[in-house]
């Protein structure tokens, strides 16, 4: 497994793979890898002969009061785990490498950040799209694999790839969960024992929302209120949002429509830790 720290190095590696006629898959991460990330590696091997992982804690997607400084950084353990999973290369750039001095270029997908996490994390998705666009241009993959726990992020990035003609196949993999249903996340490390027990209510809420829609509920407010009530009933859970949006424009519908795909999603604080979760649901017959 090779480790690259500069754009020039990783571009040369990518070019050599392409010249050999092989396909390259990229998994962008911020490190602090868990089994969910490693399952992404397994999935990527299904789409490409070579798999690369980027590890970069991106400062531009953190707000001024968010956890950039304390975000877990476990590079040595991450590299060992990736080596065991058969990764060909890891890109670990510095902030200066990704954002050179006097940098002035940003990438933004307009309109898809007006619901869900967008209003609560201003500038977050612009930071995500900008860094992922730069990672794509540096690593030049044929395929990019993402976990669908961050569903809004995936849908925004998919639109960016489509609109800017990156020519990259976007693969979203279902959320990997703990035995009690909690979505695997690097931020789960922040939870103390008491809060960890409460955290399973997050997944219960989104599965409830999906079930209501699949069962024929047409009123998004009814679904949203039910998800909120489940979380609030646990005690010590501060709900930030519980929403239903369509999967193309990420807008909240007035009424659920047939032949349409929706996303039920929640965000909540348990103690000082912000957790998100979601479920996709297809409405076929209402």
Description of the molecule:
- There is one protein chain.
- With 286 residues, the protein is an alpha/beta fold.
- It has helices at 7-19, 35-44, 75-84, 95-98, 124-139, 151-163, 193-198, 200-214, 220-232; strands at residues 2-4, 24-29, 50-55, 89-91, 143-147, 169-173, 237-246, 260-270, 273-283.
- The strands form 2 sheets. A 6-stranded parallel β-sheet has the order 1-4-3-2-5-6, sandwiched between helices. A 3-stranded antiparallel β-sheet has the order 7-8-9.
The tally of structural domains comes to 2
Number of distinct helices: 9
Number of distinct beta strands:
9
CATH class of the largest domain: Alpha Beta
- Rounded mean pLDDT score: 96
Summarize, please.
With 286 residues, the protein is α/β, with parallel strands linked by helices. The chain is built from 9 helices and 9 strands.
């Amino acid at each position: 497994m090779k480790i690259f720290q500069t754009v020039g190095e990783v571009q040369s590696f990518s070019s050599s793979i392409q010249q050999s006629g092989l396909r390259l898959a990229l998994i962008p991460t911020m490190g602090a890898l868990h089994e969910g990330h490693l399952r992404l590696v397994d999935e990527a091997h299904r789409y490409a002969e070579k798999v690369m992982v980027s590890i970069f804690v991106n400062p531009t997607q953190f707000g001024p009061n968010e956890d950039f400084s304390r975000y877990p950084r476990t590079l040595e353990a991450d590299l060992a785990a990736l080596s065991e999973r058969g990764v060909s290369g890891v890109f670990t750039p510095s902030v200066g490498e990704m954002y050179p001095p006097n940098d002035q270029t940003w990438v933004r997908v307009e309109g898809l950040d007006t619901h869900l996490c967008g209003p609560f994390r201003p500038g977050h998705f612009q930071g995500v799209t900008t860094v992922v666009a730069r990672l794509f241009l540096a690593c030049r993959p044929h395929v990019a694999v993402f976990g669908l726990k961050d569903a809004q992020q995936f849908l925004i990035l998919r639109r960016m790839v489509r609109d800017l003609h990156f020519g990259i196949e976007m693969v979203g993999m279902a959320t990997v969960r703990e035995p009690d249903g909690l979505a695997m996340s690097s931020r789960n490390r922040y939870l103390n024992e008491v809060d960890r027990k409460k955290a399973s209510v997050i997944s219960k809420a989104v599965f409830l929302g999906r079930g209501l829609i699949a069962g024929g509920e047409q009123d998004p407010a009814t679904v949203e209120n039910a998800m909120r009530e489940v979380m609030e009933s646990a005690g010590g859970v501060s709900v930030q949002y519980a929403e239903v949006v369509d999967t193309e424009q990420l807008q909240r519908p007035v009424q659920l429509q047939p032949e349409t795909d929706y996303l039920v999603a929640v965000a909540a604080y348990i103690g000082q830790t912000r957790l998100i979760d979601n479920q996709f649901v297809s409405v076929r017959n209402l």
